[in-house]
Write a structure and sequence with these properties.
Elements: H1 2-29, H2 43-52, H3 59-73, H4 87-122, H5 127-141, H6 144-158, H7 171-200, H8 203-210, H9 215-227, H10 229-233, H11 235-252, H12 258-268, H13 271-299, H14 301-308
Length: about 300
């Protein structure tokens, strides 16, 4: 298991470096600069700003300075759009908001999706199964931003049950979390249904039923424990979807999370914020995938054994 973990950790470090490097190069390939997008500054002022932020140096030198500050000091630089505000402080202030929204949406989606999938498997070809599949199709077909607009109209404008936008108490997170969760509910419902149907067809399930094992014991001890592996496998992908989805949802619901800064930084060509938020999101995703790989190896020993031989 140690060899398997170290191998995955090495992949994580390499992937992080590749993401940082590619983002840095592509960001500087965008036409224009942070001080010419929608701004009318005197040439001398622009020159001084470029010197201040090191943009007058060769690209390779800028990359070396950035990596040195990042690795040695964990410094992601200062925002070009908001002078005096560091990228580290933006992430520290705004990331918890995005994390709270994402965790709420993911927890709700995984629990509901797994329940729907198990229900559909045990009621195969019945109305419950058909209803779950209809929900799954709708969840995949309807984009989160369209669902967000519909939820705002019905629950905020028409019936005035929940707030339209903003961030405060729990009621402010209900509609954004629902907007993010529908697609994941659909994915988990389909995966759990397929996996449970496969497990229910195994000989040991039939043997347990013949011995008179209760439904509760059968579902919990035999079906879920064996059918949950595919759900663990796609967990990292769903977290990535939540992370990227919050960027749009935060803008729609005016949530002061990291996504709003990321979207505005692209428009403003705020290189530091673009790079810093991208690195932060990438590291979160990579760490989650690493944790899922380790968890999967613990749940299924065959994975780590096969990984250890390579």
């Amino acid at each position: 298991m140690l060899k398997y973990t170290l191998k995955r950790f090495g992949y994580m470090i390499i992937t992080t470096w590749v993401v940082i490097t590619l983002t840095f190069v592509m960001m500087h390939s965008i036409p224009g600069d942070p001080f010419s997008s929608g701004k009318r500054l005197p040439p001398e002022t622009k020159k001084n700003l470029n010197i201040k932020y090191g943009l007058d140096k060769p690209l390779l030198t800028q990359y070396e300075l950035f990596m040195k500050n990042l690795v040695l000091h964990g410094d992601l630089g200062e925002s070009y759009t908001y002078p005096g505000l560091t990228v580290n402080s933006i992430i520290a202030q705004r990331a918890p908001v995005s994390a709270k929204l994402g965790i709420e949406a993911l927890f709700f989606a995984v629990v509901v999706g797994m329940i729907f999938g198990i229900l559909a498997a045990f009621k195969k070809n019945h109305w419950q199964d058909h209803l779950v599949m209809i929900i799954a199709i709708l969840g995949i077909a309807i984009p989160s931003f369209v669902l967000a607009a519909l939820l705002q109209y019905f629950f905020s404008v028409k019936f005035e049950i929940l707030p339209t936008s903003g961030w405060g108490d729990f009621t402010h997170s209900i509609l954004p979390a629902l907007s993010l969760s529908l697609g994941i509910i659909a994915v988990y419902a389909r995966y759990m249904r397929s996996s449970c149907i496969d497990v229910l067809g195994q000989d040991y399930i039939m043997t347990a039923e013949a011995k008179g094992v209760s439904k509760v014991v059968l579902v919990w001890k035999h079906v879920i424990r064996n059918a949950i592996l595919p759900a663990i496998t796609i967990l990292g992908q769903q977290i990535a979807g939540i992370i990227t989805g919050t960027f749009v949802i935060e803008t729609i619901f005016s949530i002061p999370g990291i996504g709003r800064y990321f979207v505005s930084s692209i428009t403003d060509r705020d290189y530091s914020v673009i790079l810093g938020t991208t690195i932060f999101v990438a590291i979160v995703y990579i760490v989650v995938v690493f944790a899922v790989d380790i968890l999967y190896g613990l749940v299924d020993p065959r994975i780590r054994l096969s990984g250890g031989k390579k």
